[in-house]
Amino acid sequence: MPEPLTGWQLKLLGPPQVVTADGQVIRCERKVAALLSYLALEGPTPRATLVRLLWPETPVSASRNNLVHHLRRLKKACGADLVVPGELAALDPALQVDVRTLLEGGGTRLDWTVLLDGVELDGCPDLMEWLEAQREEVGTLLVDAGRTEMGRLEARGAFAEAAALAQTLLDLDPVAEEVWRALMRLQYLNGDRPAALQTYHRCRNVLERELGVEPEAATKQLARDIDQGALGTPLTTIRPGRIPLAALRPPTLVGRDEAWARMEEAWAGGQGIMLIGEAGSGKTRLALDFLHSRTTHQLLFFQARHGDDQVPYATHARNYRGTLAAYPDLELPAWVRSELARMLPELGDAPPPMTAEADKRRFYDAKVEVIRLIAERGPVIVATDDVQFMDDASVEAGAYVGSRFWGDARVNLRTLFCLRPGELSATAQALLQAMYDAGALVPIHLTPLDPPAIERLLADLDVPQARAYAHDLARVTGGHPQALLETLRHLFETDAFQRPGQPLEAGGGVTAVIGRRLERLTPFALQAARAAAVLHADFTPEMVAQMLGVPLMELALAWEELEDAQIMSDERFSHDLVLATVLAGIPSPVLGVLHRAAAQLLASQGGPAARVARHWQEGGNLGRAAPWFLKAGEAAEATLHVEQARAHYRDARLAFETSGDARGALQARQAEAALNVGVSE
User: Fold this and answer.
1) 0.85 cut: is pTM over it?
2) Regarding the domain delimited by 257-445, which CATH topology (the fold level of the hierarchy) does it fall under?
3) What is the pLDDT of residues 543-571, one digit of tens each?
4) Where is the Bacterial transcriptional activator domain (predicted)?
């Protein structure tokens, strides 16, 4: 008598598979999966019924042979009989079946998706109809179970977990408006008000696209309550030694009433907005809160990053790629796709390198067309953060795109920018001044927070004796928002708020405060942060793991530590000041090693030649840097950015000469000379 299948599992939710008692996984062929699913849900079934469902057009004798053949193959693959022998087919009673567990009320896991996911039963119409009905029933149960679990998580204050579950529910049913409301509420309660407002915008877009309707009144009211901070107190509980999430992104905006009023005035006048402030002055937070309050507009949020200035169109490549990902159904004309492929190679073959200004204008017109197609769907805001990091090519292209829409009454397009003072290139500064002079853009300078604003912030974070601490913090931080937040994180982490009556001191400025937080990291987490800082822009945990030569799952633990310490936020540093502090603290020998590792990684991934060259240069290997500078010059020349090409060719020549490569140096000089000839002509 065969041994019972104790510990064996039949997984029918998701891709069908059998898991043996020792963990071996056996994939199921589609008809075998359908057979096992039918027996699991309908119970013991005559073989005659099964052959009629599985092979409806085949003679009975051949059908029965087919069934025997499939069962034998299943037994051979598994090494056991899953189906009990006999005229009445049935599953082994010891076999654990996930879908039966769910139907019996014992399952709440939402990583289960579709019954027999990926299985289509062509040629079996009755069985396919049965499967579709079962899928619908299972889907309803999964959603109900998920909502119940989401409520339990919210009740115990696990807002982040509940929000993740809400997002999974929306993946199953994207138009479930009550789940959208739950996600908005959970994000707000978890201390992330901007994310909650962004979720409202996503909800509105999905409902418009899928159903052609606006959100319900309850959803609109919830968005207003979140925007005004009227929903109640977000999660700010102070746990000893742990930084509350709200200290990363305080739930309400404070001390920016005057700037907000000027932004409203510019908006009413149809002008663009330029927020100007030092690093950490709160430009991005103010911009996002203002943008999310414009509930009638679509938002295209562009970001420049440190290092973009080395590569022509680096900023636009990143942000147009993100824009197309956000609008996957955008139908681009063939000529637009072809032109955009100059900076987005995944779109197909690009035209030949540019040789005339007309080529550049056509490329820029393709970018105009993308914005125009999006604007056809409704009013749109194009916002750009950290303008000072933009490469000049993207600045020039952005100005061209904007000029094509200014004054066009048919297109409701607004612009907002964030900028650090004194850090623009000459090209960008000239364009900016021209926009100021034309009245197209209004500069708004951000000032430090005063003690009353700091007191309101501390009250939002549930800091005890907020009024008493406000003046101390104003003195220590100068009212600089990022310095204030970094100091608060330090005080939370050192339990200073648990020792009332002691003066608050966190001297040394924001860099020193961040440095002390870095000192508390484990060595591996600190090394991961250092590798990411050397990569600077567009890094991922996968890239950092490759750079350090460690398994991704091992790095994931370090990444979680960095997020808990609020060094990282998703796949970015929580602030540029944090990145700069990490980078400044890397010992020189370690820095060289990391730069060389970054160069090898980016080269293997087809990264921009200019970045590969700089990493080899910073890593002390000019011989390896030289040919990459040459490639970078060719790339810049191909986009008609002559000055940048000249600089790269000059760097290539110097690197070749320093490393003793006379032939390479000659090649670089010839490229530079040919460039000069081309310009003079």
Assistant:
1) no
2) Rossmann fold (3.40.50)
3) 999 999 998 888 988 998 898 888 887 78
4) 97-227
